[in-house]
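Re: your question about Tetratricopeptide repeat protein

S., sorry for the slow reply, the queue was backed up all week. Below is exactly what I fed in.
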Amino acid sequence: MTLEAQARRALARGDFPAAADAARQLVHSAGDQPSGYFLMGIIAAETGQISKAVPLIRAALERGEEAEYLAHLARLLILLKQDGEAAQAARRALELDSSDALTLDTIGCVLVRLGDHLAALKPFEAAVSIEPDNLDYRYNLAAACGFTGHSDDARSHYEAILAADPGHARTHYALAILSRQTQGKNHVARLKDALANAQDGGDALRIRYALAKEMEDIGDAEAFDHLSAANEEHKRSIAYNFDHDAAIFDTLEDVFEQQAPSAAPANDASGPVFVVGMPRTGTTLVDRILSSHPDICSAGELQAMPLAVKQLSGTRSRTIIDPDTVRASASIDPSALGAAYMAQARHHLPADDIRFTDKLPANFLYIGHIARALPHARIVCLQRGAMDTVWSNYKNLFATQSAYYAYSYDLMDTARYYARFMRLMQLWDRLLPGRVLQLSYEKLVSDQEAQTRRLLDHCGLEWDAACLSFHKNSAAVATPSAAQVRRPLNADGVGKWRTHEQALEPVRAWLEAQGFNV
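Result:
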């Protein structure tokens, strides 16, 4: 057996010392060959030494360009937030022929992280054709099909996964949100069986969310019981305390009250458009409306502004936003922040000179930074009725490890978060009059053309009727709203909270006491 084969076998069984020993021997015996360096890089990455792994894989590429090496380099660069180089490496890997399923799946995963779901289809399909029984590869392909509007293909792949693994929780949830369920066509019975056999808390969480979603679709009141059980358990597991988010809001208010950004309006119509707001309030809808215009494209939900603020603030905490980072960000040079944001954002665009939307909802926390750093940026904030906002946040499963959504597993925490969001938006309106368009979801639904004209005017875009047919937009959607925004505008979501009016009464009473119109 060759040294390379020894190293790869040891890697496959998780024996990193044996793999490292074989890889080092390979480098010493054949230093002009790339495989030893590549394997040492992979071993370093697998043991958490990412910064050590990258130069080793680069050394392998200097000795021979292989799709496998480029794919794994791209994966590591994504982890290091070096999206530009990651994109170059992934796209170069895609140009090279590869018959290795892992390499192809890795390329696809990098493209997904870059927001290019359409391009990811090709390597995902190739990976599945090579290893059709690999459920991870098939799941990635199914998700990409769903994001790009190929719902029937997605459904077929998800069903194939469940045929092989009936307890595959991620698939149960993905299938539930792929489309609206009906009394005659749903998966409730199968989901109940899967829940009864769930062996893991994370699996039970996803299956309960899937059950709640499907039961909500068909009007079964038991939906709330599953949702409540899932959320209570997950809140316990993450040990969330609303005081954490309250401290961030407090610090934002203190910092920007003392050092208000310029209120000068954006006159140049060349800057990015930020679509912000609480999640599940219509941000994806507005992003689709805007990106249906020929003069602008969607860059998706970019982490570019949070990352730029975090990096330039210099704080050492592991969280992306916290009171210390907000305080430190007050001294960031605005032009440096704007340049850092644009440098990161460009890697997600088809061309450098194209105008784009950034629809990360949580950018409402960064409106002060955006106003300082990007004077030509336009900002649109979605406003939705308080009760529908609270209910919609509570019933949707967001990224479970993301601190952005930790409040959403408790109804009262979500109500408190909504109240602080509204208070912060009032601050931005006072400090930055005219900079932020407050767009009502309900008004958009009831008077689509007038509100769309108002939206385009704020963003410096000429009227284009295509924006009324946003549901025909073929671009990928990678949010829980993917199914909704492929249908014409409707009022189905308005007043939806009243389905569970009795259970939500404490929230309604609290919000009313805070002065909200509920």
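The chain has a mean pLDDT of 92. The longest strand covers residues 378-383.

Happy to talk it through on Thursday.
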